[in-house]
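Input structure tokens:
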């Protein structure tokens, strides 16, 4: 398997659009790396550059330390699974999976063996005679993946392969895909706009916004130590609470005095914001008071919106509690915050605050 590297890669479309803006990252052999970001941030373009379907405007793409910019898609030997699956409607499942092997003029019996074992791995052995229109979304998706796997390529590229599936299937396929690509030891670059999917599946996540890589890191690092407010807000469901730190008196309701002093100093340098993940607010303990405005049941947990006064205005925070707690909309409540888990942002960049 292979290692991929981007060095100062740009992709421009015309004068105005910079779809990929100075991308630098690597994907190690056998690694499962996810490109994560909102729609239009340059994920598909990045995959197309790797596959050779688009050419870079600047910079170098390397596989195993060799520059591949000039190679055609077929010389790169990279398998890409498109969001649309791109199956041939007039061919059955067997033929759809076998295409890459037939292009290579592999013998009929070898093709049969190879397609048979891939189909078994994907649990679609009984569907080989069917046409794509006779398959469910999840089955079509497996066929598209089968066609990628059968080639034993240098790299796998997957562009939002689960986006068209219903929620339950998407959840199940997440786990299956992760196990599958690890079992074939495939170097895989996976694209999604779904942060939960990225957290659940990846060895490493590359977070993008407007063509610019924001952060590269393991899922836990991205979640716990986001480099900026964009990453903190984009990753995590329900979203992180963001509160602006405006004055010391209000802050002293939330934090110990040493932290308040440090925060106050920071406000001289620009806009200071505090990020509080919902799971780090503890209800029923502490000296911050508020009123419950909304309760959203989420299975074993309740997502509770509490309105509290801060900065001489009303702000809302969301927090999680177990669904066994008796609570109603309109209740007066008190809560505290796990200070050690707070994130601080100065002009949108995360900073460490002592105290
Ligand atoms: N062929 C193209 N011509 C012009 N602009 C394009 C083309 N392909 C993509 N773009 C633009 O580049 C940006 C990134 O697109 P894309 O890579 O498809 O984003 P994503 O896959 O993250 O949703 C978008 O602003 C998109 O409109
Ligand atoms: Mg896309």
């Amino acid at each position: 398997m292979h290692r991929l590297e981007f060095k100062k890669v740009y992709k421009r479309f015309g004068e105005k659009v910079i779809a990929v803006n100075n991308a630098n990252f690597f994907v190690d052999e056998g690694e499962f790396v996810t490109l994560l970001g909102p729609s239009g941030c340059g994920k598909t373009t990045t995959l197309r550059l790797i596959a050779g379907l688009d050419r870079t405007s600047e910079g170098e793409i390397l596989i195993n330390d060799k520059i591949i910019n000039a190679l055609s898609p077929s010389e790169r030997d990279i398998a890409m699974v498109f969001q649309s699956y791109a199956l041939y409607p007039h061919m059955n499942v067997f033929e759809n999976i076998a295409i890459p092997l037939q292009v290579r003029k592999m013998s009929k019996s070898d093709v049969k063996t190879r397609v048979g074992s891939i189909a078994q791995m994907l649990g679609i052995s009984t569907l080989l005679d069917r046409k794509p229109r006779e398959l469910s979304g999840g089955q079509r998706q497996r066929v598209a993946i089968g066609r990628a796997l059968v080639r034993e390529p240098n790299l796998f590229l997957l562009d939002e392969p689960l986006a068209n599936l219903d929620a339950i299937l998407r959840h199940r396929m997440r786990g299956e895909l992760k196990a599958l690509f690890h079992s074939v030891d495939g170097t895989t670059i996976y694209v999604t706009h779904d942060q939960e999917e990225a957290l659940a599946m990846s060895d490493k996540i590359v977070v993008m916004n407007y063509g610019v890589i924001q952060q590269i890191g393991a899922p836990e690092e991205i979640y716990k130590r986001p480099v900026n407010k964009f990453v903190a807000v984009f990753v995590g469901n329900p979203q992180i609470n963001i509160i602006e730190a405006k004055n010391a008196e209000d802050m002293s309701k939330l934090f110990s005095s040493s932290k308040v002093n440090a925060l106050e100093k920071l406000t001289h340098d620009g806009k200071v914001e505090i990020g509080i993940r919902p799971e780090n607010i503890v209800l029923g303990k502490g000296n911050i008071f508020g009123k419950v405005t909304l309760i959203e049941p989420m299975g074993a947990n309740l997502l509770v919106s509490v309105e509290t006064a801060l900065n001489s205005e009303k702000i809302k925070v969301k927090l999680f509690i177990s669904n066994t707690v008796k609570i109603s909309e309109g209740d007066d409540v008190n809560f505290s915050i796990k200070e050690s888990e707070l994130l601080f942002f100065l002009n949108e960049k995360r900073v460490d605050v002592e105290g």
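The radius of gyration is 25 Å. The mean pLDDT is 91.
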